[in-house]
Write a structure and sequence with these properties.
By secondary structure, this protein is α/β, with parallel strands linked by helices. About 30% of the residues lie in helices and about 30% in strands. It contains seven helices and seven strands. It has a seven-stranded mixed beta sheet. The chain starts with 7 loop residues before the first helix and ends with a strand.
Length: about 210
Amino acid sequence: MNDGFANPRATWDARFAREDYIFGLAPNVFLTQQAHRLAAGMRALCVADGEGRNSVWLAQRGLEVVAFDIAPLGVAKARRFAEGCGVRVDYRVASVEEWDWTPEAFDVVAAIFVQFAAPAVRAKMFEGMLETLTPGGWLLLQGYTPRQLGYRTGGPPCAEHLYTPELLRAAFGAHDIVELREHDDVLAEGTQHAGMSALIDCVARKRG
């Protein structure tokens, strides 16, 4: 594990210890493109939600949202953001290893750039995300591919933390993968995801 992830809670708290929102306030574009799959009243979980931009957007659409992040300072900023937007989100402080993946608790799981997890932790996280989905529920995931190491416009600097189509098919192929797409695009998500990026999108629906 590289130095940036030796103490992830401290690392992320240090990054979030600023007045500005380092990933911006706008929701992730890939997530907004999935709006047609969402409906008011759905229960949604935002994994490693950071400063709240995605959970707030889901709550604004009428979903019942739970979100967690490892960094207390990030969660505090997310709570302030949600309050300022007039929406309610149930925010928790937890790592993906600490989180209780309650079976069949959510209709939607959003995992946007959750790429700090080493392979063993990531495998358990992927299993947990599927377990906590209801049958027919949606997994919405976006991340970087290893080619992102050439762009250096965001994400961890270690290939083993990044996603490939083969990795995601192995993790979610027992369910219905309705979208799996690699593409290069320009991100403008605050100061941390800025510039041309090597992305992969995955939308999977849990089989009953």
